[in-house]
Write the structure tokens for this entry.
Amino acid sequence: MSNFDHLYTPWRYGYLSGDRKKPEVDCIFCAKVNADDQAELVVYRSTHVYVTLNLYPYNNGHLMVVPYAHVPSTEQLPPEALTDLMLTTNAALAALRRIYKPQAFNVGANLGEAAGAGVAGHFHLHIVPRWAGDTNFMSVVGGTRIIPDELVETWRKLREAWQAPPSGG
Ligand SMILES: [Zn+2]
């Protein structure tokens, strides 16, 4: 398994090590579409996509931009949803910069199980803030990575930071 797989699928190791029951037919991303924002850690809702926190973050502020539509790839999204996806990604990057001042980002997606997608049926784009020296992937695999920020606190910070509109928007 490459480092790339580790980076975008950290939640899978939670499944392996935890007592979480096997994923059911219900889609975890569809479940968030009409759910309570705080309960499901939904940071922002746009017209075609929403933004939520990864429950097994690689770093503080690890976000996912998710279309409301249950489709496995960007290829099934109409142009307006694709535009919304990227504009919302830009807004997420801006919010993360305001809060965490990361040195860099990884932005990417795994299309299909063979590529490492944890939920292959529902496309989601990962946004991971990065700092020099945070590249110890093995600590993620071992489930021992220290995340100093609580998820709800991260959610709260991002909701506040999101109030400022993205540049040009
Ligand atoms: Zn779904």
Remarks:
- Strands lie at 42-45, 49-53, 63-67, 104-108, 125-130.
